Every structure is written in C-alpha cells, then in structure tokens.
Records
---
Amino acid sequence: MNTLLAPSKLSDVEIKNRLIMAPMSRNRATHDGLATVLMATDYAQRASAGMIISEGIQPSVQGQGFMNSLGLHSKQQRDS
Ligand SMILES: Cc1cc2nc3c(=O)[nH]c(=O)nc-3n(C[C@H](O)[C@H](O)[C@H](O)COP(=O)(O)O)c2cc1C
C-alpha cells in the first residue's frame, strides 16, 4: 500500500496525504512586511499538493530576520 499518498491524520487534523511542504522564506512581502498578491499566488499554486507549513512571520520590528518577509506587528500588516 502506498502510505505516502494515502489520507492520514496529524493528531485531530485530517490530511490528504503525507506530503508536507517545509516552511520556506519567500521574501515576497513588501518592504514594510505587508502581504502581496504574489504570496497568495505562490501558496495557491501549491495548495492542492498537500499540507503547507507557511513561512515565518515577524512578531516585532526586532524580530525581522530577512528582507521582504511578512510582519504581524502593525494594524496595516494585520489587515493586508
Ligand atoms: C520560517 C522558516 C523559513 C525557512 N526558509 C527556508 C528557505 O527559504 N530555504 C530552505 O532551504 N529552507 C528553509 N527553511 C528550512 C526548511 O524548512 C527545512 O527545514 C530545511 O530545508 C531542511 O530540510 P530537511 O530537513 O528536509 O533537509 C526554513 C525554515 C523555517 C522555520
């Protein structure tokens, strides 16, 4: 039996298969850490394959490790 492509469970979460995309910094947010259409497209293109662990989101200005990464410490970022 092909267990890689068979439906499975991660704790209480039903998953389509065991293909899980590791988090990868895409650097597709704006310089101010706002989400972009490019980011939505990137995830949408991969969504049918399996589970995706998204990239990191900086919780503060000091927490930013890379350029053009997503932030979640301002109202503008939250709303983007
Ligand atoms: C927030 C976050 C961002 C990451 N970004 C990248 C990345 O851009 N490129 C990359 O090769 N690995 C990135 N990694 C590490 C990968 O998720 C993965 O752990 C690494 O490629 C090693 O994979 P392996 O254990 O299957 O060899 C990131 C990890 C985290 C937590």
---
Amino acid sequence: MKRVFSGIQPTGEIHIGNYLGAIRNWAKIGDQIGKEAIFCIVDYHAITIPHDASSLPRLTFEAALANMAAGLDPNKITLFAQSHVREHVELGWVFTTQTPLGDLERMTQFKDKSEQHSILSGLLMYPVLQAADILLYKADTVPVGEDQVQHIELTREIARRFNYRFASPEAPIFPEPKASIDTGAARVPGLDGAGKMSKSKNNTIGVLEPKDTIWQNIRVAPTDPQRIRRTDPGNPEVCVMFAYHKLFSNSDTVQMVDTECRRAGIGCVDCKKLLMENIWQTLEPIQAKAEYLREHPSEVTDALVSGADFCRTIAQDTMQEVRQAIGLLPLDSRRP
Ligand code: SF4
C-alpha cells in the first residue's frame, strides 16, 4: 500500500456505521502511510443528482469537519475538496471520450439511482469521474464499501484501456488500483435491526447527534421480539442492542449482557441505558472535537487548502503525462 485514495460524500451526517466501518480504518491507514493517504470530499460528484447550490459549500465544510472530528487528522493524512483540484474534471473528460457507453449503463448504482432521480448525463458519467479521482493520483489501493467494487473494476478497465491505447506495456501511465473492502460498515446493523445502517433507511445513530436524540432512538428500538415481559428470558443473538454492545462495550459487559439477558436477569431498559453510556464514551470526545472545530473553522479551511495544494502538484504531473500521451498541443509550444 503506497498511496490510498478514498472519496467522502459532502455531508456532515456521518453515522456509527461510517465511523466504525470506514473512518477508523482510514485513520489507521494514515498512521501507516501519512500524507499518501488521500481523502477527497467529492463535491463534483454531489452535483450528479439535483442539488441545492446554496447549501453545498456548507455541506462540503461540514463533511471535512465531521471527518476531522471523527479521527482524520490533516496533519497526518491529506484531506481536500475535489473541486479545488480542477484536474479531476479534465481527466474525467479524457476518460469519458475513451469509455464505451455500454460499460456505464451496466453499472448497478446508475440503474438504482436513475430510478430515484431524473437522469442527468453526469449520473451516467459518475464512475468515469470516480476513475479519474483515483487514477489522477495513481493510487494503488481504494478502500470502498461492497457497493463500490463494480466501480473499481471499471476504474481498472479504464486504466488498462488507456495504457493499451496511449502507453507502452513497459511504461504504463496508470497502475490498476485494487479495492480494499470496508467490511466493518456492513457489520453495523441499523437501529431497526433490518439490515445495515444506512441514511437512506433512516435507521442510523449519528456520530454528531445530540445525546438525548440518540437515547430517544435507542429507547424505542426493537429488541428480541420474543421477550415481551421483563420476566421473559431473551435471546441476545437476535437483538440489535447486543450487536451494539459488542461494538461499544468491554468484554465483561458483553459477557454479562449475554448471560443475564438469557435468564431475564437484566431488563431491556437497563441494558439499553448501559449501552447508551458506552456509546457515549466513544462519541463524546468526537463531539467535543467537532465543537472545537466549529469555534475554529479556519483549522478546517486551512486543512482543505493545504490538502488541495499537495494534491494539485501530483495531479498536474499526471495531467502533463496524459496530455502528451493523447496528443494535445503543449501550451508553451509556440515559445522559442
Ligand atoms: S436484555 Fe438487552 S440484549 Fe437482551 S433482549 Fe433486552 S435489549 Fe436485547
């Protein structure tokens, strides 16, 4: 793993599935490879579906703030906004000219999203821009959720096709990046217990949500449906609260809940209160950091500026190679 690239949607609403499944892992990658761990808030991607232009700058800022609060340290890793490095769009266009339409129409995410939104051409081209995001930095590893694996396959195909047409086998311009699956996200179930935690299912615990709101949601969340009275023994294996205990509580507490639930030694309300305190132990420092960053917004904007400066240098080098490879007239060709 030499260089890692990952895209972050421009929203400050990260949930514990994002945190446990992705952000914690990204922070660890940053510990290993430092600035070569590149995280990009993909605001150009956000406009591929109808969006509110007046709120996008705030959402982009909030995404940076939330991810910094949750553990992405811009002194270690690189964090920037996609639109601050224009070469993303330029390489996206070059790849657009080389990508068969059929490859894009096959994408599962395009089919899903086009059922929900009016089809803008940008939605079809989304994976091409994503390929440009990754290949602009010649990243070798891309941490993604399982739903993005198909897009990384397309990125590899785009790199292969470009190398075949415009470079020699001995000196390819683009490496073929590999997907590294964030399995943790899939393992965090939603509050309703019906599948994975996801904003679209409205079953999330927000990392920056107020403690009261989190408690209200946990308080009414379903438990073992067979446990109707306090005296009924329960089965923790079918209860989402127990799944959360395994993620947030220490092993003694997990063991205690496992035993006491089965013999009705603990009631669901007490079990949930205990869980709430343990979740809060994780979230409280993140929320405190978020509050600090809100009071010091220049720490967020400065991080984005220096992240973009770092990325622009790499991106410009890549684009110089690409322009030459595809036969564009250099700007300085008329100078003596
Ligand atoms: S005691 Fe806890 S683990 Fe058992 S059913 Fe109730 S909430 Fe779930």
